[in-house]
Amino acid sequence: MRRVAVIGVGVTKFGKHDRTSAELFAEAASEAILDAGVAPSAIQALYFGNVTGGETERQLHMAPLAATLLGLPTIPTTRFENACATSHVAFRHALMEIASGVSDVVLVGGAERVLNVPTESATEFFAYCSDASLEQPAGLTFPGVFALIARAHMDKYGTTEEQMAHVAVKNHRHGTLNPKAQFQKEISLDTVLKSAYVADPLKLFDCCPFTDGGAALVLASEEVARKHRKPIWVLGSNAATDTMFVHEKRDLSRVTATERAAQGAYRQAGKTPADVNVVELHDCFTIAEIVATEGLGFFEPGTGGLAAEKGWTSLGGRLPVNPSGGLKAKGHPIGATGAAQIAEIVTQLRGEAGKRQVEGARTGLTHTLGGNTATVVVSLFGRD
Amino acid sequence: MTERVIHLKGFFEEARAGRLTGIRCGRCGALALPPKEFCEQCRERDWQPVPLDGAGALVSFTVIRVAPRGRAGEVPYAVGVVRLTEGVSLLGRIVDVPFDTLKAGLPLRFRPLEIGGQTMIGFGPA
């Protein structure tokens, strides 16, 4: 298999937009192509992610629409949907197209728009990512899924609501350093702890927001990438799946798909958790960050809450997690999130992250989780 | 090829009538709920339907306070994962149990529920 690098990144401002998902993606994609310094005509395929366009915009067949709006109407396109892991899954497939020798330059990313519908509608559409036979009829929501995980983690390890709140405070602090973040305002521990319950024990400030936004990456073969100013190499990328049914999870305090995806990605890259300098991981809820830092091998099971409380995952700490502000503060346009996480790690490894730069970062990791912890993709990146 | 012994539709029809039905693998004895094609344990496709008693204990739970569209009138409501005495688990709505008494290990019993025109798996006091 051929080596592949990310040579271009583009991300829209995250927040509320009055443009469509396809337009948001096209904006991010043009930024990524200009960043890559390749001619638009060099792009050979588009791997595009979007989840709720059929519901929020009455728009399907969005991949060719995005290519049309980008001004590249004749390249082959594919639309991906794996809940919140959508564009990280798309990334892995784009990677395989280049690694296998089919193409040399591929565009990948995604977009989402949900702030044009009421919150209860967005909550319903996101719940479509859980099982429709058993779970949706019971009224299970995504905060509900992670509340079940939080309760199990609290019961097993003594993790506290205050430790979870530390994740929110940290990611909001990081968000103030990211001009594209949806929220660029610090919050206090008290604000989180006194916010209303959404699904006990998760409160409003334990949850990431609904977000509109787009993100895009240009991937290239080694031969093309060598001509780029700062290629960031894909060292490994692995996907794992687990049962869709929450009731079938063997241990609700763990996300085994994260553990399996990470093991494969580390093996491909020839790296261990100790080699990683900067991480963008899936903090859709504060407990999700705690469980992910354990599943990715950074902290022992049951100590992820302590790591957040002690500041080990803050910028300046032993392993900065979500310097972009994460899903919590940067925002979570679900079809774009995986690509946006990769864009942040590429920016960090290039040394171009400004005030939120993790000094000397050489190896970075991205982790994206979809749905009822059923889909996880983990990728590792490195610089020359 | 053996015929499916029970489908999701049949599972719910049975559940509506108050009968919880799982499937047991004819090769390794693993229990599954809801029905599926291959046994996750041994990959065999040889199921027998088995009636489940419906008694179990709470594994984890939450009280939903922000609901999807169409369910706003039902909040707050409790949802939990219950481990049945036979060894399989099931997710459902928990009713007739005060929220402040919910805790892991609490004994509960299956009951079919019809709320807001929708049939769902429910659990009430044992």
Architecture blueprint of SSEs:
The complex is a heterodimer of chains A (384) and B (126).
Chain A: E1 4-11, H1 21-36, E2 46-49, H2 53-56, H3 62-70, E3 77-80, H4 86-99, E4 105-112, H5 119-127, H6 142-157, H7 161-175, H8 189-193, E5 197-199, E6 202-203, E7 213-221, H9 222-225, E8 232-241, H10 256-269, E9 278-280, H11 286-295, H12 304-310, H13 326-329, H14 337-350, E10 363-370, E11 375-383
Parallel strand pairs in A: 2-3, 2-4, 9-10
Antiparallel strand pairs in A: 1-7, 1-8, 4-7, 5-6, 8-11, 10-11
Chain B: H1 8-16, E1 20-25, E2 31-32, E3 47-52, E4 55-64, E5 77-84, E6 89-94, E7 107-115, E8 118-125
Parallel strand pairs in B: 6-8
Antiparallel strand pairs in B: 1-2, 1-3, 4-5, 4-7, 5-6, 7-8
Mean pLDDT of chain B: 92
Terminal CA distance of chain A reads 19 Å
Major sheet size, sense and barrel closure of chain A: 9 strands, mixed
> What's the main sheet of chain B like?
5 strands, mixed, barrel
Please give the radius of gyration of chain B in angstroms. 16 Å
The helix/strand class of chain A is alpha/beta
What structural class do the secondary elements of chain B suggest?
mainly beta
Order of SSEs of chain A: EHEHHEHEHHHHEEEHEHEHHHHEE
Strand order of the largest sheet of chain B: 4-5-6-8-7
Number of helical segments with 4 or more residues of chain B? 1
Count every helix of chain A, treating DSSP H or I runs of 4 or more residues as helices.
Answer: 14
Give the uncertain stretches of chain A in residue-range form: none
Total E-strand runs of chain B: 8
The coarse silhouette of chain A is globular
Strand content of chain B: 35-45%
**Oligomerization category of the chains in this entry:** heterodimer
Helix content of chain B: under 10%
